[in-house]
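Thread title: Can someone regenerate the structure for this chain?

I was given the following input by a collaborator and told the matching structure tokens would be attached. They weren't. Posting the sequence so someone can regenerate them.
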Amino acid sequence: MLRFEDAPKKPANLSLNAEVLAMARELGMNVSKTVDALLTEEVKRQYWARWHLQNQDAIASYNARVEQEGLPLDAFRSF
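Best answer:
Regenerated them for you:
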């Protein structure tokens, strides 16, 4: 699982749209916190998209096996 909550902060240089940055400051937004949160979500999204792409053959194989044989412990299900 991807967990970034306790990771230390590290300074970074960013180039941002000047007008957007000015508006964010005018609105009193914490730009660092906002960028960090949005970047975290995008990293997670791209990580899982890549994971899915790299594992699509295994997922398809497992799904085909379940389709043919049923779930491995299906006989023990009470619902």
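The helical segments are 18-26, 31-54, 56-69.
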